[in-house]
Amino acid sequence: MASGLKSSTLELLKRFNRAFPQFYEQFVSSEIQLQNLRLAYRLYKTKRAVIEMKPEGSKSALHFAYRNQSFLLSDIFGVLAAYGLTIHGLSLYGQIRPPMLVFIKLLVSRGNKALTEKTAENVCRAIREALAGRFEVEEMLAVEFNLDAGLEQVQTDFYVDPVFHLPALVIEADNQPGLFYKVMYAIWQEDLLVVNANLLVWRGRTRLILYLLGPNESLIPEYLGHRIAEGVKNRLLSQ
Predict the structure, then answer these.
(1) Segment (H or E) for 157
(2) What is the pLDDT of residue 2?
(3) Number of DSSP helices (H) and strands (E) in the chain, helices first
(4) Nearest-CA neighbor of 166 among 200, 207, 206, 214?
(5) Buried b (16+ CB within 10 A) or exposed e, 189-214
(6) I want to staple 178 with a disulfide (CB 3.0 to 4.6 A). Which of 64, 70, 110, 145 is the partner?
């Protein structure tokens, strides 16, 4: 827990952290915990999704905070694909108890460079429009990608993580255009809620570990999890 904070802030942070999975307070840095608390306060005050892009070295960092819903990641990654952005890093922390907020940071680039100020503004505006149903992600992507084409060399697995105490879905596939959007679209079709994510890109392969809640924000029993893993794999292979 962060030191040097007012006792009232520490107490507020402790209450805020109780809505996250058990591992959150132990494994997530105090700096990120405080950042997420501030983002939650902005959400409370404005009643609007927090969507902002900031330069971070040679890349741009997209920060996002809103109430978690199964379609969110499909919309966000769809917009990023539509703008031809490369994804280098992903951190995602979602609450498993009300108000069910989710906090996302994505490291992105275009041509291995940080986005221009104008492009960053356009991407943030497009994500907001997509969430409001005014930006048709699929229609824009259909111009760039064959959305009916399946992914190559897909592997999926399901397990219940013994440390995080959450159902986990592992998805591994060859790197290719539209990969993240297609994965997140398949997750949305299964009506799954992502509450934590790990990303590894290595030797032309992308490996995603998604920690999940099922429909109606429920835990997923193991027998159903294996069925979901097979269903997601089939969707990704055949679209």
Answers:
(1) strand 155-160
(2) 54
(3) 8, 8
(4) 214
(5) ebebbbbbbebebeeeebebbbbbbb
(6) 145
H or E stretch covering 211: strand 205-213
Banded model confidence at residue 133, pLDDT cuts 50, 70, 90: confident
User: Average pLDDT of 206-215?
Assistant: 95
Residues 137/193, Cβ–Cβ less than 8 Å: no
**Residue 12 in 3-state DSSP?**
helix
Classified as helix, coil or strand, 56 is strand
Q: How far apart are the first and last CA of the chain?
A: 45
| In the predicted structure, residue 3 carries a pLDDT above the cut 60 | no
**Pair of tokens at residue 145:** 């990608």
pLDDT-based confidence at residue 237 (cuts at 50, 70, 90): very high
